[in-house]
């Protein structure tokens, strides 16, 4: 359920077919070695084996491929006879589950529509490769057939946040691929899009230099920057502020287009950044370091505990270096002297969303006030959580003085590839500042092409699945059988108490703990990794049913809990059933314990939706 095909289910290294070691209980898991299989056995048998392996009949205990109780999805039977016989016993559990779905759906309804105050300058989920051609259009194809598929691809990233997934996608295109990648970036936060447009502009504007990739990595993440980097930002802002949308498009040879005449909003942001005093040590300076420290001091106790737990799970050197990062927030290509980085990074500042929101129903655009932008990166956000540390280590072999240097090198290498695509005119970005619910109108008005992929970030947490599928389905490219809408949520265990092992009744909790402590030394008894030993798929099924039941923004709520079978056909789409097959773009959920540096969000779940009656 977690791992992309062709990779070991423990270490996630790519494995060759002749080396695979299968799980003996289920048809899904494969390992690079018996060592990896054994290391994963306790976790995996408590988790995916339960989902993909044989089921036990609730009436007669027989094992096999059984029929599921369609009301609750949590009991299995040989046949109708066994089901009838078990009913008197099962009915309480079964009805209990339906009741909790109903309760959940009314609670979810109230949770929707809450907004975070922080602009997503770093993001909080792993960067996604939107295309993964080898796993989709190009899978099982010969070289000649692949070249026939060398057409352009169109991706919509709704609620896009920062550029990390665009960067990863562009940098992951197979070397043989010669087409163009068109990415539409939709977000309703002008700060986020102003930062994205600035970064894209910088890549194009300074593409002929060899330092722009490395400098941009620093500007993306580092609290302080060098004079050279500050000048790059300043020059770019000065130029951008003068431009109309047409001039921006011309200046970037059509590579960066801002849609629906929203450039004015971005201009406000750019002027705000331009007006900040960034020279450190200057009495009038914005002093980001102090602002960052204050923000952490004022954060809740839970975050402080999370940080100390995170540190205990690292090796000694990484721990030492990460402590430093928590203190100084520097993200540079090498260890640098403080004197060489004399500027605060203006692109890490913004205005709080709650102060900017002018809400009218579901349709809204954030306004910008005259207030000075201030440091506004949530203390929970780290560059280490958004770039999968397994991939970072894989692509930057050798030893590094710190995780920062390793990650810096990784992101720089990705940007280097993006830059070369840009030089070839093969990465085109269309920027749309709008509520995602309004985007389809703009799409239609501008007569834009349909999409091979629609990624919706975790907008499902705000708007519900049904609404997103309803509005985005008409935008999918019906000529491509691999066209897909990806929905994600990050708040599963917040919404559904039974998804959180820490909230389980004592006996169940003890069972999870005992699995966990058999696998891990008890001194490592950490909050985070326990989630790895608890199968939260049944609560997730309930969540999906409750979410569809709740409706949102014009999608009416339902009287009764929909069956999972009908959830799978929501809005006439076809859900890739994560209980039967693996996702092809985004794992349903990510392995945590092999990703210590990344501190992956435990509540993140991704679902893929296909057009009906298409091959996949
Ligand atoms: C959904 S948020 C959450 C963070 C996300 N998981 C990430 O890692 O980037 C991502 C982005 O969606 C944007 N967003 C939230 N609601 C939106 C809406 N209704 N329309 C468009 N963008 C929205 C936010 O401004 C934010 O930049
Ligand atoms: Zn392995
Ligand atoms: Zn198994
Ligand atoms: Zn039976
Ligand atoms: Zn049942």
UniProtKB/TrEMBL annotation:
Lineage top rank: taxon: Eukaryota
Alphabetized InterPro entries for the sequence: DUF4470 (IPR027974), TF_DEAF-1 (IPR024119), Znf_MYND (IPR002893)
Alphabetized Pfam families for the sequence: DUF4470, zf-MYND
Protein biosynthesis keyword on record: no
Keywords: DNA-binding, Metal-binding, Nucleus, Transcription, Transcription regulation, Zinc, Zinc-finger
One Gene Ontology CC term in the entry: nucleus
UniProt keyword Heme present: no
Residues covered by the MYND-type domain: 57-94
PROSITE patterns (alphabetical): ZF_MYND_1, ZF_MYND_2
Molecular function terms, GO-annotated: DNA binding; DNA-binding transcription factor activity, RNA polymerase II-specific; zinc ion binding
PANTHER family recorded: DEFORMED EPIDERMAL AUTOREGULATORY FACTOR 1 HOMOLOG (PTHR10237:SF1), DEFORMED EPIDERMAL AUTOREGULATORY FACTOR 1 HOMOLOG SUPPRESSIN (PTHR10237)
Protein name stated in the entry: MYND-type domain-containing protein
Top-level taxonomy: Eukaryota, Metazoa, Echinodermata, Eleutherozoa, Asterozoa
């Amino acid at each position: 359920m977690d791992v992309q095909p062709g990779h070991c289910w423990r270490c996630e290294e790519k494995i060759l077919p002749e080396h695979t070691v299968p799980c003996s209980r289920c048809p899904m898991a494969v390992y690079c070695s018996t060592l990896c299989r054994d290391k994963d056995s306790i976790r995996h048998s408590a988790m995916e084996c339960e989902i993909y392996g044989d089921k036990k009949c609730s009436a007669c205990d027989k094992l096999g491929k059984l029929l599921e109780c369609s009301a609750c999805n949590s009991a299995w039977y040989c046949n109708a006879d066994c089901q009838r016989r078990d009913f008197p016993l099962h009915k309480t559990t079964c009805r209990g589950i339906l009741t909790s779905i109903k309760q959940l759906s009314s609670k979810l309804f109230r949770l929707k529509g809450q907004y975070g105050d922080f602009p997503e300058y770093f993001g909080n989920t792993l960067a996604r490769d939107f295309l993964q051609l080898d796993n989709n259009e190009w899978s099982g194809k010969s070289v000649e057939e692949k070249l026939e598929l060398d057409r352009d691809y169109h991706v919509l990233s709704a609620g896009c946040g920062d550029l990390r997934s665009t960067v990863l996608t562009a940098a992951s295109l197979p070397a043989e691929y010669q087409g163009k990648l068109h990415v539409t970036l939709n977000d309703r936060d002008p700060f986020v899009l102003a930062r994205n447009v600035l970064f894209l502009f910088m890549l194009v504007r300074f593409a002929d230099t060899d330092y722009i990739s490395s400098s941009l990595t620093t500007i993306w993440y580092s609290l302080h920057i060098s004079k050279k980097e500050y000048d790059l930002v300043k020059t770019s802002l000065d130029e951008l502020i003068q431009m109309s949308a047409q001039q921006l498009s011309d200046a970037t040879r059509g590579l960066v287009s801002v849609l629906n005449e929203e450039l004015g909003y971005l201009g406000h942001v750019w002027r705000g950044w331009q007006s900040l005093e960034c020279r450190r040590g200057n009495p009038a300076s914005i002093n980001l370091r102090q602002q960052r420290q204050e923000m952490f001091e004022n954060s809740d106790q839970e975050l402080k505990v999370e940080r100390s737990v995170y540190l205990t799970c690292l090796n000694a050197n990484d721990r030492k270096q990460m402590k430093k990062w928590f203190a100084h927030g520097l993200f540079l290509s090498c260890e640098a002297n403080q004197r060489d980085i004399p500027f605060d990074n203006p692109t890490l500042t913004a205005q709080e969303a709650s102060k900017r929101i002018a809400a009218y129903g579901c349709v809204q655009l954030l306004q910008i006030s005259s207030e000075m932008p201030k440091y506004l990166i949530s203390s929970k956000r780290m560059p280490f959580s958004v770039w999968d540390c397994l991939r970072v280590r894989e692509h930057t072999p050798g030893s590094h003085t710190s995780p920062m240097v390793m990650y810096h090198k990784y992101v720089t290498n990705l940007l280097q590839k993006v830059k070369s695509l840009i030089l070839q005119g093969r990465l085109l970005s269309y920027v749309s500042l709008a509520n995602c619910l309004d985007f389809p109108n703009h799409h239609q008005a501008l007569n834009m092409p349909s999409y091979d992929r629609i990624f919706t970030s975790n907008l499902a947490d705000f708007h519900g699945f049904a609404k997103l599928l309803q509005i985005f389905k008409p935008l999918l490219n019906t000529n491509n059988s691999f066209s897909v809408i990806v929905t994600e949520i990050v708040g599963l265990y917040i919404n559904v108490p039974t998804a959180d092992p820490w909230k389980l009744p004592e006996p169940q909790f003890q069972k999870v703990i005992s699995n966990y402590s058999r696998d891990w030394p008890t001194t490592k008894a950490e909050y985070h990794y326990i989630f790895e030993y608890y199968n939260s798929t049944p609560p997730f099924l309930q969540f999906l049913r409750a979410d569809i039941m709740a409706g949102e923004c014009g999608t009416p709520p339902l009287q009764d809990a929909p069956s999972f079978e009908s959830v799978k056909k929501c809005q006439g789409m076809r859900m890739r059933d994560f209980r039967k097959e693996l996702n092809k773009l985004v794992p349903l959920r990510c392995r945590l314990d092999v990703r210590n540096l990344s501190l992956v969000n435990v509540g993140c779940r991704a679902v893929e939706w296909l057009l009906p009656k298409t091959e996949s």
